[in-house]
Specification:
Layout lengths: L2 H26 L1 H6 L7 H6 L1 H22 L6 H27 L4 H25 L5
Helix pairs in contact: 1-4, 1-6, 5-6
């Protein structure tokens, strides 16, 4: 295993998730969040709990990358493998999560859809980043 590239790829995954989440949740979905304000914690509590979101992403990033390394095929292009991996992980994580949230939270279906789409974009972009960065030790 190439520990240096594993660490770099994990950092890239963290950045991808951080940036995509920031743009989607703080720009694209603000109106939907305002429409469903009764569902969410007050902004001050959300800001106070932000470290938990960062911690969750810090846990996700190296595990996302580590799992990729276990299925890496040295004779195939990394980008294609990464995109495929991101697609699979995106469906694995986002579809069940968004269906459950829609079932238990009083949110519009469009919000659940956007969360699913965001999860797919994040996972595919993160997979592509890992595919471009990670190479096993030769």
């Amino acid at each position: 295993m190439n520990t240096k590239r594993l660490a770099l790829a994990s950092l890239a995954v963290f950045v991808v998730f951080f940036v995509v989440d920031g743009v989607v949740n703080n720009v694209l979905l603000t109106d939907l969040y305002k429409q469903t304000a009764s569902v969410w914690r007050p902004d001050s509590e959300i800001q106070g709990n932000m470290w938990l979101m960062w911690l969750g992403t810090l846990i996700l990033a190296p595990l996302f990358t580590l799992i990729y390394t276990k299925g890496y095929e040295a004779n195939k292009p990394g980008l294609g493998q990464g995109v495929r991996y991101g697609l699979i992980v995106g469906v694995l994580l986002s579809a069940p999560q968004c269906l459950v949230w829609y079932a238990v939270l009083p949110i519009p279906s469009v919000l659940a859809f956007w969360w699913f789409a965001t999860g797919m974009v994040e996972s595919i972009a993160a997979g592509a980043a890992v595919g471009l960065i990670y190479r096993p030790v030769s």
